[in-house]
Amino acid sequence: MKLPSSFRVLLRWLKRRLPGTLFGRSLLIIVLPVALMQIAVTYVFFDAHWQTVTARLSEGLAGDIAWAVESYKEDPTPESFAKLSQRAEESMGLSIALQPGRSLPLRRRDPPVLLEAFFAPIDRSLDRALSDRLDAPFWFDTTRYPAYVDIRIGVKGGVMRVLAPRDRAFATQGHIFVLWMTVATVLLTTVALLFIRNQVRAIERLANAAEAFGRGADVPAFKPHGAKEVRAAATAFLDMRGRIQRHIEQRTALLASVSHDLRTPLTRLKLSLALAEQNKRTADMKRDLAEMEHMVDEYLAFARGEGGEAAEVVKLRPLIEAVSEGARRLGAQVTVTADSELTANARPSALKRALANLVMNAASHGEHVEVAARRGPQGLEIVVDDDGPGIPAEQHEEAFKAFARLDESRNQNTKGVGLGLAIARDVARGHGGDIVLERSPLGGLRAVVRLPG
Q1: Which of 43, 68, 189, 358 gets the most CB atoms within 10 Å of its CB?
Q2: Helical H runs in 276-373?
Q3: Cα–Cα distance measured from residue 191 to residue 312, given in angstroms and rounded to the nearest whole number
Q4: Contact 450, 365 (CB under 8 A)
Q5: In the chain, how long is the greatest CA-to-CA distance?
Q6: How many Cα atoms sit within 13 Å of 415 on the Cβ side?
Q7: What gap in Å lies between CA 239 and CA 320, rounded to an integer?
Q8: DSSP line for 228-251
Q9: Which helix (H) or strand (E) holds 258?
Q10: What is the residue-wise DSSP string for 355-424?
């Protein structure tokens, strides 16, 4: 069934405003229902209990005051009023006094702003009850005295003032109930949040370990903890890491063995050529042997990857200058633009090899090469531009595949085994970054190395 468009818009709006972290969402799942329940319970308590009790108390107080006023009207003598006052004090807890010649205040005193929402229902209940029971004008103040309610009634010749205990006018324990409920809710929610934080910490530890391992960093073994599912995921990650490391070690050992086995006959051939008569044929054979050695080195470097090299703070400009010297020896004009103090947290040899592959690749296909390094909002960027023939946009990803040979204008009469860009991207991704290819402003190819930091 297709949802209404307005409902889909609401879902998208809610999705955009949900916390992005697991802890934030868990916090929302716990706090939001508790807060809604707290609001509902408080509303029901005040609406169904507190206001009802307050209304009954106000009616009772208004009835007692009405009795006192009527009794005074029937016999306004001082002796009768004294008995009335004593009886009201003893049996009703009301303090009654006459104020001859006085008049009622013109307006009622407003409660403090912070307490207005609390006292407004009390004032309404008391005003309604007094209006129903009294025919005379009246005035009252529920906020001036902390223990009493001040009520004044206009009588013949002056004002009758009544001081009634606050618990006679409204239920005084309601706010204590709400306070205790709020404190208990906050304490229980805090305990729940601490527990959730501990569970989320186990997931964060696993995520950090997976992210570091993906960058090629050495991740020490750790003891899985947390919920059963989290422990199972951490154990599976450690097992996977072990299998991948064993596979890499076996591949490296195999390639190293193959390299060693190939170098032995190559060395014999080089020795034989050195002893043979030097002519054009032997020179061509020497070049072929040198190319074979280069291919073996490339295969071994691709299989070995970054080895176990540790990361350190590296100044980029000296590294780029060292790489650029090799390109200059090929006859390319290389321009380097980088701050002398620009640094990166990287594995020096691996990063140097990646940049060397990019710069030498650019120098092999163009006459002018520009290398620029800068720190942007997304991290470090190292840009290599050349004025060569470039690569069509649809073949940019194909160029990163191992042993890729794009037999177009860019690869005519060039040496190599098609591993340069593959090795460079592996190094960049091993640092938590990546390499992308673009069209260069110089007319050739642009390689952009992005690194974190």
Answers
A1: 358
A2: 280-304, 316-329, 348-365
A3: 41
A4: no
A5: 150
A6: 11
A7: 39
A8: HHHHHHHHHHHHHHHHHHHHHHHH
A9: helix 228-275
A10: HHHHHHHHHHH-SEEEEEEEEETTEEEEEEEE-S----GGGTTGGGSTT----SGGGTT----S-HHHHH
What domains can you pick out in the chain, each with its CATH number?
20-172 (3.30.450.300), 251-301 (1.10.287.130), 310-451 (3.30.565.10)
Phi/psi for 148 (5° steps) reads -135, 160
pLDDT digit string (tens) for 156-210? 888 999 999 988 877 666 667 777 888 888 888 888 888 888 888 888 888 888 8
Tokens of 293: 């050695």
Place of tokens 């069509």: 392
Cβ-based neighbours of 378, under 8 Å, separated by 6 or more:
450
DSSP-based three-state secondary structure for 334: strand
What SS3 string covers 176-227? HHHHHHHHHHHHHHHHHHHHHHHHHHHHHHHHHHHHHHHCCCCCCCCCCCCC
Q: Would you give the DSSP letter of residue 175?
A: H
> In which region does residue 332 sit, left (phi positive, over 0), alpha (psi from -120 to 50) or beta (all else)?
beta
Entry pTM: 0.51
Per-residue pLDDT tens over the stretch 416-442: 556 778 888 888 888 888 999 999 999
- Quick one: DSSP state of residue 20? S
